[in-house]
Amino acid sequence: MRAGTPKVLGTSQEAQAEPGDADPLLAACMVLQEMLALKYRIQLDETDFLMKAKARTSVSDRLSPTLLVKALNSDPPFRVKDESGDKLLQLELQVLAVTSFTELQSYVRRFPGTACSVATVTSISSKRPQVVAVFRQTYGSQLVGLVGRAKLQLFGGVAPLIDFNQDSFRSAAVFDPVVAKVLRYESESNLMVELQVPSATLEYQYEPEPSEDDRVAMRACTLLSDLVFAGARQVPVESVEAACDFCTDLMASRLSNGSLQAATCRALGSCLPHTERYSRSAQTAVEMLAAAMRRHSSSQDVLESAFWAFSGSAAMRADLQAIAATNGVSEEVVNAMRRFPGPDAVAVQRSASGALAALSAGNPSLQASIAASRGIDAILAAMRQHADDVQLQQLACGALSNLAAKNPNNQTTIGTSGGLQIILRTFQRHLESTTVLQSAMAAIWCLVKNNTEHQQRVLQEGGVELMISAIQRHPDDNNLKALARGPLQSLVPGLADVLAAESADAPSSSRTETNAHPPDSSSTSQAFTNLPDAQAGGPQPMNGQHTARRKAEASLPAAGTSSPTRLGWALETIDEGSDSGGGSPGSAASAAQPPGLTARGVRRTSNPLAPPASKNFELDEQGRSKSK
What are the per-10-residue average pLDDT scores of the chain (628 residues)? Predict the structure, then answer.
């Protein structure tokens, strides 16, 4: 059936409507009427709209704001009479899906008193979800809810106002109607004449200029991130979460200010790793990061800052990963990688690769959703486009290893997309970079484990020789040697043991140990979370004694010193007599961390959140961040 063909009305679901049920189409009509009046100073013929909208939509479409808009935007074009009945307005409904109550509050503040969004909520008086036109906040300083208008489905009368809060909110969509054409029928010529489309009003287009308060808020966010970084191990969790709340309140009150959104994203990136698991502050922070990504999808600065926040905090945090999945964060990251593929957007590609690596670390659901949104293709495209960028190659290899870890479907997808060849070329191109080699080694390990086709391909491409060459170039890198044992044991059984024996006969300075010890606090080695166990006989549980885990030795500077905090991390592989085998690919979270980031997301500079080569921040002589 062609989209837009009238459907049979009067379904059994409509017949079962209860007297108190709100009409979803009437709610959508109220939002369109008020937004068109604000934007163009025009109104629709309500009867004509309802008749045509009902013909295009099913009952299930009307209960979902996004599905409702999708149906109304389907072919043929949606044309509705204006209030006078003299003109036809061809409408295109732009919609922004809202997944969090906090984000919806920020849009309601943007248009106070004007119904700008349709929300699905649960009502105290009805067990069914209700669709309402949201137009204001609840009155009273102690109340933090929103209020929606509705009309009754059975009788069309005005229903009582429905107030709702975080607990009763389900989903919402902000409507931005666009008048694409204005048509009028000319009886004399028997033709439809196209008239001039009205311009948007100044009231609708108004965006406040950044004020002095905004600039003070940006400086406060920068100082806040520095303070949390410097005292991360001493600051109480309550204080860190209060800082998160401060940042999210700023974001909600100034949603259109891109510079402030970027600054608060950086501050949240510093605070999030230290929040309590499953806390409301952490949940709201993730929701507002997602909101900033959607609202400022064309701003590289905002996207880069938000992606770094996820790359430094989401790895192995199931609570943050779950909220990110609910808010569609991985899809937004992949879409941004497609929108900004060029050489001038390499910073976005770096941070996006890091975010995908962190989101997919140890999370099968996000592994699947990232692959479904063509995230693997986006990562490989970035590796091809920016082949000489060390940091991007490290992060992209980490993302591929986390996506492939214990996931045969993603293993196959990466292999058939040419991922193995790209990783091996990266390995060969960056033989002098141990961080890239470690990430590439982990990616190869996760791709060849229990996959004979990939093993043969790596052997044919000279992958074993490349790995041996890397070990010989960096004889003192114990992490690299520990990582090499896994893929080498899968590719050439016994070779890893021979190399280990040769290393044992070498001088102590270049000897590979089963358990690597933490380096000193000035080391720049990366953190490895749940890496494959080089000596385990097969896939092992994420927790337990047969898991490769990270162990940190942190050295904080004394009070009053200006030297930046550096956290030294090392790989500790634990084995208790398990059979020799190919290793157990886990999540290579080393690669999920950008250079200079620890596994808890704190950058190893005195400004932990400013992305590399940030155009907004630089360091002064004391190592403190300052605005340009």
Answer: 40 49 86 93 92 90 83 91 91 87 85 90 71 88 79 70 87 91 87 90 79 78 72 75 90 85 91 90 92 91 94 86 93 95 92 96 95 96 95 96 95 95 95 94 94 94 92 90 88 78 56 33 32 35 26 27 24 29 43 35 33 38 41
Q: Which helix (H) or strand (E) holds 172?
A: strand 169-186
Helix 65-72 with 46-56: angle, nearest 10 deg: 100
Q: How far is CA 126 from the centre of its chain?
A: 35
- Please, what's the largest Cα pairwise distance for the chain? 101
Helix (H) / strand (E) element for 261: namely helix 258-271
479 three-state secondary structure = helix
Helix (H, G, I), strand (E, B) or coil at 82: strand
Q: Spell out the residues 6+ positions from residue 284 whose beta carbon is closer than 8 angstroms to its own.
A: 100, 102, 244, 245, 248
Q: What is the DSSP string of 313-337?
A: H-TT-HHHHHHHHHTTHHHHHHHHH
Angle (CA) 550 556 483, round 5°: 25
Q: Tell me the HSE value of 397 on the side-chain side, using a 13 A CA sphere.
A: 32
pTM comes to 0.69
